[in-house]
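Batch manifest, entry 17 of 40.
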Amino acid sequence: MVSPNDMLLTISWCHTIYFLLYVDDIVITGSDDRLLQSFIDALSRGFDIKDLGNLHYFLGLQVASQIKGVHISQPNIRMIFS
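Output type: structure tokens
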């Protein structure tokens, strides 16, 4: 028996959702806005979540949206060689 609070896994061969989780930080993105919103709605039924808007930084990585996707960089890295 499945309770209404259980999240169901939906497999789609045409679209992708990326779900990144680190401790209490979550990044969710995907290829289809409707599928992505239904995933977020299902997630919010079981957890308190807040949409913080477009991603700019995550775990020290800088994220910049571009026309063809995203550019991820780590600009604050300093390498010291002796």
